[in-house]
């Protein structure tokens, strides 16, 4: 399943697909929230949580600024987990 197919699913089916097949990659702590990066098929999904718990919003993407912030941490782990060439 690619990102277009995933985004075309009804929200309930997106959550089912996500929880059934996601692979956790990394956390990123921001000033007022914590972001959680998962790999799903050939794209990434970011969930965000705050003091009240997990927000009920999925941000699906292939690359770009949302992914870049995770590359500031343990590059060897991220490279392997994301299957990204960082050379």
Structure write-up:
The protein is α+β, with helices and mostly antiparallel strands. It has one domain. It is built from 4 helices and 5 strands; from the N terminus they run H-H-E-E-E-E-E-H-H. Strands 1, 2, 3, 4 and 5 form a 5-stranded antiparallel β-sheet that branches. The radius of gyration is 13 Å and the shape is globular. The mean pLDDT is 83.
Keywords:
87 residues; alpha+beta; single chain
Q: Tell me roughly what share of residues is in helical segments.
A: 25-40%
Strand content: 25-35%
Strand count: 5
Q: In angstroms, what is the radius of gyration?
A: 13 Å
Sketch the major β-sheet. 5 strands, antiparallel
In whole angstroms, the N-to-C terminal distance is 28 Å
Oligomer: single chain
Secondary structural class: alpha+beta
Overall geometry comes to globular
- Succession of helices and strands: HHEEEEEHH
Element layout with pairings:
Elements (H helix, E strand, L loop, with lengths): L2 H6 L2 H11 L1 E7 L4 E7 L2 E8 L2 E2 L4 E3 L3 H4 L6 H8 L5
Antiparallel strand pairs: 1-2, 2-3, 3-4, 3-5
């Amino acid at each position: 399943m690619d990102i277009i197919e995933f985004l075309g699913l009804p929200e309930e089916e997106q959550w089912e697909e996500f929880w059934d097949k996601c692979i956790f990659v990394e956390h990123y702590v921001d000033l007022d929230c914590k972001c959680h990066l998962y790999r799903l098929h050939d794209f990434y999904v970011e969930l965000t949580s705050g003091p009240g718990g997990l927000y009920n919003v999925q941000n699906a993407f292939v690359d770009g600024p949302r992914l870049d912030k995770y590359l500031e941490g343990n590059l060897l782990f991220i490279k392997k987990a994301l299957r990204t060439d960082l050379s």
